[in-house]
Structure to design on (347 residues):
């Protein structure tokens, strides 16, 4: 009886290192077609032809494996003494982007020849491109690969950009910086001139190009979180905390406006409450808090109006949490008329 096929791991390397054309004996074999690329749902007619007169290497003793699993004999047909045919219908997407391993074996299990099957879909049009500039020093973009995304084939994505009215196409080089479909342009960017940005997707079955995004660096600026966030008690008021911070220093030399948000939560909760009406102040008083409770506070910044830009700006990340506790009720007597829920700039 025929021996079991070789272990799976060596077969997985065939499409990476190259499919062998010969086994350990003097005979050789060829699979045709070699390394085909097919759409999902396609059929494949393949042949394994043995050359030479080595015993045991005739078509009647051959068999096929796909990704290390022996294919049912009813899928094969002997064409002549040296050629075994294979018919596969309604192919599924490749299990590995480097190609599925179709291997022709001799009766004793040795590998005679191998072929890589690339079964998948052409790339779809990338969409939803979004970009931001950290402190006007760079540009980072990310995108969505397509409506379905998965092509079952290795698909290469290239972010291209150029100045809108002149200049040549440039290709971003630092990929996967903030996720699988992203790229970072670290320097040499122009201000006051719009850029055109798009993404090209390519694989063995075709290519697709996104719509062009036009933007000005000044319109997509974000910054570091506000530094030096301090949270302190407001005298003996048991229901209030004062929050102060510093404007992001990286933008201090540029003409811009800023608005801030604060969020806070109690120590044993994961639910944040957001204060939206801080405006461009760098201090705020939180009121209506629980006495004797530890609160965590964070602040973020939205720089807008840089050099007169009319865009809304992009929020920074939140600052590191800063903790403080409100006084307990028995720590002091509250001055009359100081309780409440009003929020506003700290005095």
């Amino acid at each position: 009886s025929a021996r079991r096929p070789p272990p799976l791991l060596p077969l997985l390397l065939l499409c990476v290192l190259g499919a062998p054309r010969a086994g350990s004996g003097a005979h050789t074999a060829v699979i045709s077609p070699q390394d085909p690329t097919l759409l999902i749902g396609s059929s494949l007619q393949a042949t394994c032809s043995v050359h030479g007169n080595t015993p045991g290497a005739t078509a009647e003793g051959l068999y096929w494996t796909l990704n290390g699993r022996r294919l049912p004999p009813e899928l094969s047909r002997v064409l002549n003494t040296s050629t075994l045919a294979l018919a596969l219908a309604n192919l599924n997407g490749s299990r590995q982007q480097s190609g599925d391993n179709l291997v022709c074996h001799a009766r004793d299990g040795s590998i005679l020849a191998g072929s890589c099957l690339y079964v998948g879909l052409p790339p779809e049009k990338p969409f939803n491109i979004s970009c931001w500039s950290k402190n006007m020093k760079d540009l980072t973009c990310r995108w969505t690969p397509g409506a379905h995304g998965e092509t079952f084939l290795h698909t290469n994505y290239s972010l291209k950009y150029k100045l809108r009215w002149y200049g040549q196409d440039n290709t971003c080089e630092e990929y996967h910086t903030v996720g699988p479909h992203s790229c970072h342009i670290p320097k040499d960017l122009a201000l006051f001139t719009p850029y055109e940005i798009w993404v090209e997707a390519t694989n063995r079955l075709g290519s697709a190009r996104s719509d062009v995004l036009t933007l000005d660096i000044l319109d997509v600026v974000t910054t570091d979180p506000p530094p030096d966030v301090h949270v302190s008690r407001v005298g003996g008021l048991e229901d209030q905390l004062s929050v102060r911070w510093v404007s992001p220093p990286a933008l201090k030399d540029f003409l811009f406006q800023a608005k801030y948000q604060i969020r806070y939560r109690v120590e044993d909760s994961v639910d944040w409450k957001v204060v939206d009406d801080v405006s461009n102040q760098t201090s705020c008083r939180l009121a209506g808090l629980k006495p004797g409770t530890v609160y965590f506070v964070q602040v973020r910044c939205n720089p807008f109006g840089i050099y007169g830009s009319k865009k809304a700006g992009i929020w920074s990340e939140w600052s590191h949490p800063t903790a403080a506790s409100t006084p307990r009720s028995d720590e002091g007597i509250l001055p009359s008329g100081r309780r409440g829920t009003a929020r506003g700039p700290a005095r």
